[in-house]
Amino acid sequence: MNELPQDIQPAMAKARKLEWWTLLGMGSVVVVMYFAMGSSQAMKTAFLEDMLGLVPAATFLISASLERRKPTEFYPHGFVRVNSLAFLTSAVVLCAMGLWLLYDGLTGLMKQEHPTIGPVTLFGQTFWMGWLMIAALAYSVVIPVVLGRLKTPVAKQLRDKVLHTDADMQKADWHTGVAGIAGIVGVGLGFWWADSAAAAAISVSILYDGIKNVRTAGAELLDGAPRALASAKLSPEAERLCRRLAERWPGADIRLRESGRYILADVRGVHPPPQLPSLDELMADDPAWRLAQLSFTPPGCARGLVED
Predict the structure, then answer these.
(1) Within this chain, do residues 157 and 44 fall inside the same structural domain, yes or no?
(2) Any idea where the Cation efflux protein transmembrane domain is (predicted)?
(3) What angle do CA 275, 279, 282 make, to 5 degrees?
(4) How much is the pTM?
(5) Does a structural domain hold residue 228?
(6) Which residues form the domain of 287?
């Protein structure tokens, strides 16, 4: 499975290009947010979330490179599942950062911290720094929204959870931008709690995405049944494949698991047929490349080791 199916090679090339653009675009956002951050809790939270936006892009590029490596003596099955490891890494980082940011925002509310946003002089003009923060937040929304829209169809075509997580994070960034702008405006209007409340709201969104992705990534690494891209529910493709296999071999124990972007199927309790059906026939209207392995475990062999 180290050879990428021809059907998805153009999509993979496009995905790599988008992720390089993400590192460049989000890197510029991080720089802008850093210099406009000031003492605002909401700005700090949005800045850290934008930094998090670099993690899925970097892990995708690394895993996409390793995925193509040939099997070795120590990894005889190749490196296809490095995509699963990358997905888990991104999810854990999201959870950890979400928890920390939520704690930081809530403690700010409990301590009743009153952030101050004073004037700033730029190019000889003095104005309220809040306007600079709002402009930076607006810029931090535009690039992620555009990249997220471009990545979503590619992630669905590749069945790539890392890329889909990245697209989801970036599509949700406009929530972060709007919440941050609301917090800055609230402070300007005299509502001291608006800044910390906006930061806490942003962190809840980050934590939710992280927990959802950890569940899916954990199931994949534990050889669980294939999961859907956008949730921890079972993949509709896998459910349809399971039904087709059960109809073809009634009474068999059908077991499916996911390895990276591929589905591995094991039909237990039956002898392999003289001629295997084609992948197109088994997958029907679903992409045939998704089914990377179909194995059979004859009756009497399903228990594993033979007892003395």
Answers:
(1) yes
(2) 31-222
(3) 90
(4) 0.78
(5) no
(6) 236-297
